[in-house]
Amino acid sequence: MNILTPNSPTAELQALDAAHHMHPFTHGAALREKGARIITRAEGVWLNDSDGNRILDAMAGLWCVNVGYGREELAEAAARQMRELPFYNTFFQTSHVPAINLAARLAELAPDDLNHVFFANSGSEANDTNLRMVRAYWHVKGQPERTHIIARWNGYHGSGVGSGSMGGMKSIHSQGGLPIPGIHHIDQPHWYLEGGQMTPEEFGLARAQQLEEKILEIGADKVAAFIAEPLQGAGGVIVPPATYWPEIQRIVDKYGILLIADEVITGFGRTGQWFGCQTMDVRPDIMTVAKGLSSGYQPIGASIVSDEVARVIDGVEFNHGYTYSGHPVACAVALENLRLLDEEGIVDRARTHVAPYLKQRFESLADHPLVGEVKIIGLMGSLALTPDKPSRASFAAEAGTAGLITRERCFANNLIMRHVYDRMIISPPLVISHEEIDTLVERARLSLDEAHAELIQRGLMQAIPNC
Ligand SMILES: *Cc1c(COP(=O)(O)O)cnc(C)c1O
């Protein structure tokens, strides 16, 4: 077989990709027509593709490359660990140094009494662990009927059977008969789209109170846990109104329900603090982490659980785990990544130096005729596209049409900014410089201008009012 290299012609790479590689969350036939963009190298916040373009990656890969691309230290940590001990399991009363160190370091970094770590290889897997763990927890505590999980529409927790069920993505549920039984969804705190005439504060409270209504509907003694992202990522970087989380905390405390904070995106500096629950001031019993844990250099995820949850689970043999739970190479790389984030002050600088500048520059896009609102917390931001700013209107065209057009303009201008329906989102590496932020915002504005012109020209600026 002919092995291709990063220097092989793009057409050849695309043809072989189309012939054998099935892509996640992708319409295969449409991609085959078009050919995949082939990324070959990366450094800092910059990607190179096989056509020689240099692209500013405002998504940090897939929300994960917090320390930026090209860190030798992480490559070294992987090579060192592979030579010393490439693999051993942690199942049968065995352990190894990288898993020990990483678990201890995570316990140190995580807030309050979140001191115990169960490893997985991804966010989806860690959330499947959480689903099983909270059910096991109540079973051990003598309340086996507490199995129901409450989650949110338009939340994202992964795409496995359990994690995809807890997520509230109808596109995922529509394929394969999800959600599984025992998973319930309440509405999201997305004021811009769903807030109607309410103030954001009233709306935040109303959406949080749906949790209490749902608990009472199911029966308080049957609910195991509520799972949510501190702020929704894949749902479109939705920042909840200030009234939302305090009310959620009040409700889970009142009914003694476990709170799972899915920190897969919001962990490790993304919101300017180590964890999103610190930014949002909530106290979870379990945190899901992945993505920024290794800055994407190795696949690894984890559940970080409270003293109380660990004490109960440790009272039985928990019949769960993955061959690669606590994989030594992934743990060694994650540990080194956490050292960089801490010792180089990357998380602190993200809060004090990068986030304020990014906020100021990104919010300057609010005056664009296509932009209905700009939201940003730390290094996670989003823009609502609208055909009519005052009414927060949606486009009459199928949701996502304007977003896709804008994303394509961004691509053409060598900027990676994603769209979720008609919301544009950014989540750049935490190490992005002020100059690179300027470039990001300039390219975003140019792309918005071009998208606006295209929408007008194609007659796609018709509105459906939201309120
Ligand atoms: C990405 C993501 C996941 C899933 O993680 P994978 O590593 O893709 O399985 C879970 N939760 C949140 C909040 C995510 O953003």
Automatic annotation (TrEMBL):
Lineage of origin: Bacteria, Pseudomonadati, Pseudomonadota, Alphaproteobacteria, Rhodobacterales
NCBIfam families: PRK06105.1, PRK07480.1
Cofactor: pyridoxal 5'-phosphate
The family this protein is said to belong to: Belongs to the class-III pyridoxal-phosphate-dependent aminotransferase family.
Key words of the record: Aminotransferase, Pyridoxal phosphate, Transferase
One Pfam family matching this protein: Aminotran_3
InterPro entries the UniProt entry points to: Aminotrans_3, Aminotrans_3_PPA_site, PyrdxlP-dep_Trfase, PyrdxlP-dep_Trfase_major, PyrdxlP-dep_Trfase_small
Domain of life: Bacteria
Name of the protein: Aspartate aminotransferase family protein
Molecular function as annotated in GO: pyridoxal phosphate binding; transaminase activity
